[in-house]
Amino acid sequence: MNIKKSILLRVRLAFLAIVIFAGAIMYQIFHIQWMEGDKWQKMAEEINMSYQEVKATRGNIYSDNGSLLATSLPFYKVAFDPTIADEQLFREKIDSLSLMLSKSFGQTSTYYKQKIITARQKGRQYIFLSNELIGYQKKKEMETWPIFREGRLAGGVIFTKTDKRFRPFSNLAFRTIGFLNENDYGAGLEYSFNKYLAGTNGKALFQKISGSSWRPVNDGSEIRPKDGFDIQTTIDINLQDVSESALLRHLIKHEADMGCVVVMEVKTGEIKAISNLKKLSNGKYGEVYNYAVGSHGLREPGSTFKLASYMALLEEKNIQLTDSIDTGDGEYKFYKDKVRDHKPGGYGTISIRDAFEKSSNIAIAKLIDETFRENPQRFLDYLKTMGVTQPLGFQMIGEGKPNIPPIKQWSGITLPWMAYGYGLELTPLHTLTLFNAVANDGKMIRPLLVKSIKKTDKKINTFKTNVISDQICSKETLDKLKIMLEGVVQNGTASNISNAEYKIAGKTGTAQSLIDGKYVRQYYTSFAGYFPADNPKYSAIVVMDNPKGYQQYGSDVAAPVFKEIADKIFALDLNMHEEYKLEEKPEKGIFPVVQAGNKNDLSSMLNYLGVSNHSDKQELEWVRASIHNNSIKWEPNNQHQQGLVPDVRGMTLRDALYLLENTGLNVVVKGEKGRVNSQSQFPGSRALKGSTIKLEIG
């Protein structure tokens, strides 16, 4: 055999081998697809099947009056099974459906038509029409579209639901409401009450389709999720907005690093407002941590702690407020360290009351050192009785624990330094709780933030006011402390916030900041107190850290914030002051009872009765009546046009409801007949949409 024939034979043998191999492959494909197709299809489906969790809808968080602070809103991803619709319906409506998809999601109608037809021809039972999430109203609209209106079983439309957390009041009380991430870690109420809010997840069978997408199988084996419970807080939206706005305004004014405010109801311990703002890298302020409550808020309180020191002193010794103490020339040496007073040259010899009101560091340091030097444990025992040495047992996770060093770690200067708020650390909430106890006649209340756990309108759990201590000190001591706290505002370091309408009682605080083990010229300023002082309803604390400029003390920085908040609360809460009467009412027997309302209605009535009435401006719509000689003059009554609470006193209930509800307020009415006598929100104050205003008619 020559070489040519040998090569040809080998080529033919190789070709024959390839043909046989290809034939074997074709046979195997045919065998798998047609002879064993069902078996492998079933196995593939089983491999791509998985039981997965179906998330429960998270519960809502409400304010004290039922306003939503946080809720879960449903959003949907639109999928489609193009194999479901019958042939005639599909042919007749595919163009219309494609056009509507194009208008909603942006691609051309040709794109959607081709995508759906191709998927139908290939028998694909689950395709996403868009990655965009749609809201509930859009979902309802799409359910009316061609083919989709036949529903899931006859039309093939599939809406996959996912919940998104939504805050109707945006960033108001942001850190208090908190968050929860995908790893079930977070902060605030969302994290602390997660076991109630989360509900119980269900399970369902899902099949993996193209890419990483899964489609529900709905084979009847699914376990339905149980939605979470709702929680109702003590937060008052009006007071929260007032507090947060005042704090932000003063933080900007003083360029401070951080600030926080807590407003508490004296008798119940309910927290009505809590705000924490920090200066961010972009220069703006936002809530990133709860300094009022958490461990990052632990700081040396400064002079606000003098309340505790004087309480211990007055309990231990029979001291009168008129007794005197020599503070010298403004400097006093304890061992190698000096205590200084703010006033250059010192206060000299002053009374115990003056020492508190003027916030003399030397006075309280000498008094505490002389009284407790031989038995410092007794001083700590008093602090323990006051409830400032242990956590409060607050409802939110992450509460800061008071840091008071044990006596074995003390030096000779620890006790006098501690007397005016150095060498120990408290959170603002701890300090406020002590001041609130004084306002509450010595009864210390645990701060309360969540009132109840609910399922629709049924209460599952209720959290009531809890007493930490029935009496933190004697009545005699309490009376003296109240006098001194009022004196701070009337005559002392906070006299700049005194006013004639109501009394404030409280204490300023200014402490140097400890950074890297050294005290620097940066100040932690505060004011804690309560109002009205003669019948306390609210207590509050304001803290501002590292204010810039020439005003760097608690009296100049924190106290004005307290007053601004207190003034607005006083204006909103008519129960705290005498009812504001109409300045002038028509005399009986001369004029009909005309006070306020719609000008056209009132003018028509008076013209019919023959009573002269006029105004300087003819275009007035809402007016208030005043008497001028023998006629009625109309004065403007148009606060609602400026986003303010309208003055509806003297109006008929019909007119009052019209004005208030169009301003966005929820109206609660007490009484049956007559005109509006009083309103709970002060006329001319900012109208907060969704807030409640109470009217008394008679």
UniProtKB/TrEMBL annotation:
Chain coiled-coil ranges: none
Gene Ontology cellular component annotations, sorted alphabetically: plasma membrane
InterPro entries referenced in this protein's UniProt entry, alphabetically: Beta-lactam/transpept (IPR050515), Beta-lactam/transpept-like (IPR012338), PASTA_dom (IPR005543), PBP_dimer (IPR005311), PBP_dimer_sf (IPR036138), PCN-bd_Tpept (IPR001460)
The entry's keywords: Carboxypeptidase, Hydrolase, Membrane, Protease, Transmembrane, Transmembrane helix
CDD domains membership: PASTA_Pbp2x-like_2
One GO process term, biological-process aspect: cell wall organization
Any GO molecular function: carboxypeptidase activity
Transmembrane intervals: 12-30
Highest taxon above the source species: Bacteria
SMART domains: PASTA
Cross-referenced Gene3D superfamilies: 3.30.10.20, 3.30.450.330, DD-peptidase/beta-lactamase superfamily, Penicillin-binding protein 2a (Domain 2)
Protein name per Swiss-Prot or TrEMBL: Penicillin-binding protein
Source species of the chain: Marivirga salinarum
